[in-house]
UniProtKB/TrEMBL annotation, chains A, B:
Gene3D superfamilies assigned to the protein according to its UniProt record, in alphabetical order: Nucleoside Triphosphate Pyrophosphohydrolase, Winged helix-like DNA-binding domain superfamily/Winged helix DNA-binding domain
SUPFAM superfamilies: Nudix, Winged helix' DNA-binding domain
Residue spans crossing the bilayer: none
Name listed for the protein in its UniProt record: NUDIX domain-containing protein
InterPro entries, per the entry: NUDIX_hydrolase-like_dom_sf, NUDIX_hydrolase_dom, WH-like_DNA-bd_sf, WH_DNA-bd_sf, WHD_NrtR
Occurrences of domain Nudix hydrolase (ranges): 11-144
Source superkingdom: Bacteria
Matches recorded under PROSITE patterns: NUDIX
Length: 231, 231
């Protein structure tokens, strides 16, 4: 058999990429959701997604789809996993590769995203999504919790300067439960990745909350090294 | 646009599954490798792989391909990642989903595997593999090291009863470097997942090495919980 006929006999599949984009804003972990404007599925909510084209890598497809759909560019996306059940998409057999990323919402053009029908929704606002997109979101959150357990987290999501309550808030959003203030403070400071600044955030109280920033070198070293963060 | 024409306009792709199957035997971490018997690529070495068919899930495709190619069945495979570069396969554009598994070689029919042209090779014996299969192997080893760092490892690879030198040997194979005996012993015992048996392995010395087995309940709890194993 020639190489060409070997390949010619194999079935071909539609392959999609779906992007799970997390941001953090106003104390809420948010997900970028599309409300589809045109048929098919007009009005339905979904992740940002599209088909892999002939001559593009799947990683590039994810970057292109995100840019075309939301205007967001220049971010790094990690693969989550492939979703390959034969009946997962109601319209046809589509194999989907899910990607995820954590971004600072403020650094990306929100108006542009909205022009495309893209919206940032906090986790408890997420509606029923098409196909298995809710499952993808659950899996991505699971991955995020795993990351928070073994590696430092926050650099991609928080502003450069943040208070401890803000950082705790982020972890509370990821775990979807309240965390003990003193315990969190003790454990996060013990990581030795925070640099205390001579500034305060006075937006939430008169006394104000000290601002911190990540010591990038220590943060990266701890990312490399790993730990178990018990909360 | 109808749902049908929406899908009709999208490009279709060949989708393969490739299986990275690790086993542990004679003190060596081994990989299941195929030497292809028929054209195309007769004589070439590759991972166990094949195309995803029309109506099967990608997870099932991996299980089927492994069974048909090697006779190995009833094992659980994890997804590693998707390999989707447009030029990764010399013959055609193929998107590959890599899966990996850890198995006990003794529990699977070695003759059957060999009839199919499948061989267990230790890591330093692995030849040049087709396409990006060597990269897949590197990534799978990386994943294995990550698992060994944050979770207990060995249950799927070792016989039910094993000595500490055997267990250390497995870690040495995964990390591809020698580990300090006393340090390893101290750290692995501190995990409190091993049950010391009243038997000795006398195959390697007159004095013999105590045999252990995993306390499955503690092993599973620690798998759930995680830790950092520094070696």
């Amino acid at each position: 058999m020639s190489l060409a006929s070997f390949y010619a006999n194999a079935p071909r599949h539609l392959v999609a990429v779906d992007c799970i984009i997390f941001g953090f804003e106003d104390g809420k972990l948010k997900l970028l959701i599309i409300q589809r404007k045109v048929d098919p599925l007009a009005g339905a909510f979904s992740l940002v997604g599209g088909f892999v084209q002939e001559n593009e890598s799947t990683d590039h497809a994810a970057i292109r789809v995100l840019r075309q759909t939301t205007g967001i560019r220049d971010i790094f996306m990690d693969q989550l996993r492939a979703y390959g059940d034969a009946g997962r998409d109601a319209g046809a057999r589509v194999i989907s590769l899910a990607y995820y990323a954590l971004i600072r919402i403020s650094e990306h053009d929100k108006l542009l995203a909205q022009q495309h029908g893209a919206h940032w929704l906090s986790l408890h606002q997420i509606p029923e999504l098409i196909f298995d997109h809710n499952e993808m979101l659950r899996d991505a959150l699971e991955r995020l919790r795993d990351r928070a357990k073994f590696h430092p987290l926050g650099f991609e999501l928080l502003p450069e300067k943040f208070s401890l309550p803000q950082l705790r808030n982020l972890y509370e959003e990821i775990y979807q439960r309240p965390l003990d203030k003193r315990n969190f403070r003790k454990k996060i400071l013990a990581m030795d990745i925070l640099e205390k600044l001579d500034e305060k955030d006075k937006s939430t109280s008169k006394k104000g909350a000290h601002l911190y920033r990540f010591d990038r070198k220590k943060y990266d070293a701890l990312t490399q090294h790993g730990f178990v963060f018990e909360i």
